[in-house]
Amino acid sequence: MLKDARILVTGGCGFIGSNFILHLLREYPGCRVVNLDKLTYASNPNNLRHVQDDARYRFVEGDICDAKLVDRLMADVDAVFNFAAETHVDRSLLEAGSFITTDVYGTYVLLEAARRYGNVRRFVQISTDEVYGDMPEGQSARETDALRPRSPYAASKAGGDMQCLAFFETYGLPAIITRAANNIGPRQHVEKVVPLFATSALRDQPLPLYGDGRQVRDWLYVEDHCRALDLIARAGEPGEVYNIGAGNYQENINVAEAILDLLEKPRSLIRFVTDRQGHDRRYSLDSSKLRTVGWSPRYDFHSALANTVAWYRENRWWWAPIYADALFQEYFERQYGERLAQGVPYDLRTST
Ligand code: NAD
Ligand code: DAU
Fold this sequence. Notes:
Number of domains: 2
Radius of gyration: 20 Å
Helix content: 40-55%
Bound molecules: nicotinamide-adenine-dinucleotide, 2'deoxy-thymidine-5'-diphospho-alpha-D-glucose
Strand content: 15-25%
C-alpha cells in the first residue's frame, strides 16, 4: 500500500509528522511524499533539512483550510496522513478558535477533497487518547467507547474524528482513525512537558509541575507511533478506529524526577504550581485491537525517556532559539510567570 505510493502528509514540519516523513522515506524507497504545512509557531522547517534535496520529497507551505490548494494537491495522491493540528492543551485553554478551525474545519476540507477524487485509498486521521477523556483508575478506553473530551483541544480532535467516520459511512471514503497516547522523542516543541522539563533542567531553571503531579500519562516513543501508523495504513480496516498505547504509565512527578536524574540535576528544581483547568487525571488506552494486527512497542518508558533527554542535551541549537523568540517568551510569561512566582518548592511539598 505505501510502497511506490504518492503520499500527502499534512503537518509534516511538526514533531510526529517530521518523524513520520523520515520513517516513510527510509522504509519505502519508491514512495513520494508531499508535505503540506502552514508553518505555525509549533513547526520547525529544520526538522526535515536532511531530506530537503531528496527528489522524492516536496514541501508545500500552506493551510489545510485552503480548499483550492488542498484540492490541487489531492488530485494525484494514494494516501493521506493528517497530522496538521493545533496540539497544545494549555494553549487551547487560552484561545480555542484556531483549534476548531484547523482540527475540525481543516479536517473537513481534506476529507471533502479526498472524496472528490477516487484515488485516495487510505485517509489516516491522527487523533488522540484525549478524546476519551479522563479514565478512572483500573479502566482503559476501547475504540467503541463513547467520546468524552474535556478540553477545547480534545473536543476539536473529537470533531475531526466524527467527520472522518461520517465520510466513511456516507461516501465510503476509506478513512481510518488512530488515537495515540503521549508521544516523546526528538523534535517536540518545548511547550510540551518532557521537552519543557528537559530543557528547563539543562538551563538550570525550575520545572513547573501542575497540581500534585500525580496525573498519569502513557509515554509512547515517537518511532513506535510511526511504526503503528505505517502498519495501520497497510493492514487496518477502513472505517475503523485503532488505539495506540505503549502501556508506559508514569505519574508526572516520576517523569520530572527521572529527567532530573538523567541530567544529574537536583530535584529541588521542581516547583509545584497551580494546576491546569479541567486537568484530566489519567489517560489509558486498551490497544489490544492493534496488537492483534501485529504491533507492539519496542521502547519502554526508561529507554524512550533516555533517548529523548539525550536528544535535547545534544541538540541545544534546535531548541535554544525558541526560548529567544519574543512570542514564545510572551506565552511563557502568561502561562508560567505567576505560577512560578507562587510555586511550592519540591522539598517543602514532598517532606510533608
Ligand atoms: P505539532 O504541534 O508538533 O505539529 C503540528 C504541525 O501542524 C506543525 O508543523 C504546524 O505548522 C502544522 N499545522 C498546524 N495548523 C495547520 C494548518 N491549518 N494547515 C497546515 N499545517 C498546520 O504536533 P504533533 O505533536 O506532532 O502532533 C501531530 C498530530 O498528532 C496532531 O494531530 C495531534 O493531535 C496528534 N497527536 C499528538 C500526540 C502527542 O503526544 N504529541 C499524541 C496523540 C496524537
Ligand atoms: O495524550 C495525547 C496528547 O498528549 C496529545 O493529543 C497532545 O497533542 C499532546 O500535547 C499531549 O497532551 P498533554 O496535555 O497530555 O501533554 P502536555 O505535555 O501538555 O502535558 C503532559 C502532562 O504534564 C499533563 O498531565 C500536564 C502536565 N504538565 C504539563 C506542562 C506543559 C505539567 O505538569 N507542567 C507543564 O508545564
